[in-house]
Amino acid sequence: MEVVICKTYDEMSRKAAAVVADVVRTKPKAVLGFATGSSPLGIYKELIRLHKKEGLNFSKVTTFNLDEYVGLPADHPQSYWTFMHENLFNHINVPKKNVHVPSGTSKDHAAFCAKYEKGIRDAGGLDVQILGIGSDGHIAFNEPGSSLGSRTRLVTLTEQTVDDNSRFFERREDVPRHAISMGVGTVLEARKLVMVASGKNKASALAAAIEGPVTCMITASALQLHPDPIVFADEDAAGQLKMTAYYRWIQNNKPAVP
Ligand code: F6R
């Protein structure tokens, strides 16, 4: 797995955004998987800059988001639909009809999830999926114990995730307990995975994910099973990794011919 240790959050974000931009330039009809939360905000800022200043064109792109809270309508201020529109979609030229964020308010969640999976398949599969990592090691909302073969489904958040995400809500009681989330199996089918991790509170989860055993208790460890994962971490998040000297060595000794 390629691990890129960056000095700052901004450097991490710019480098991760460059991978996504490359995919879009090479394949204008790319299918992009997006995440919410604090980690990818810098990526979105950079993608907006690349669109506005360098003409990065999203007009043929299709997007699928990882997850959404159950019970929050799309236009709720804390919904992930709102988050994505405010932080990315309203500022680039992706057609609104090509944007997919799971619905947290469908009448039949199982039927919705099956349709979401089919939507990804019919679009040709995800070319690249952006991921954050939870402090409990989750990717999307695949909490410890989630099957590594899981698909898009209704999940119950852990108390830790509810605590972590309460910073976005007025009161802890307002944080939904359930979400619709792509499964680990869904994520692993993306052709490329780009994970970003920032801050000391991610250090132990990141070390377990990258250097520990593959386990459903740290669903981010499933990246070890993927053919093309790349992890960008700032120095705080990389603080508990054991192989940092080698990761830096790799970055400084890239083969001349790829
Ligand atoms: C969000 C998501 C989550 C977050 C994770 C980290 O769509 O899928 O897995 O990536 O909880 O969140 P932040 O970046 O806010 O620390």
Describe this structure in words.
This protein has 258 residues and is α/β, with parallel strands linked by helices. It has a single domain (2-252), classed as Rossmann fold (3-Layer(aba) Sandwich), CATH 3.40.50.1360. 33% of the residues lie in helices and 16% in strands. The chain is built from eight helices and ten strands. The chain has helices at residues 9-26, 41-54, 80-87, 109-122, 159-165, 184-188, 203-211, 244-252; strands spanning 2-6, 31-34, 62-65, 67-69, 99-100, 128-131, 153-156, 178-181, 193-197, 229-234. The strands form two sheets. The protein has a seven-stranded parallel beta sheet. The chain has a three-stranded antiparallel beta sheet with strand order 4-8-7. Strand 9, helix 7 and strand 10 (229-234) form a beta-alpha-beta unit. Helix 1 crosses helix 2. The longest helix is centred in the N-terminal third of the chain and has 18 residues, at 9-26. It starts with a strand and ends in a 6-residue tail after the last helix. The mean pLDDT is 97. Residues 35-39, 66-67, 132-134, 138-141 line the site of fructose -6-phosphate.
Give a quick precis of the structure.
With 258 residues, the chain is α/β, with parallel strands linked by helices.
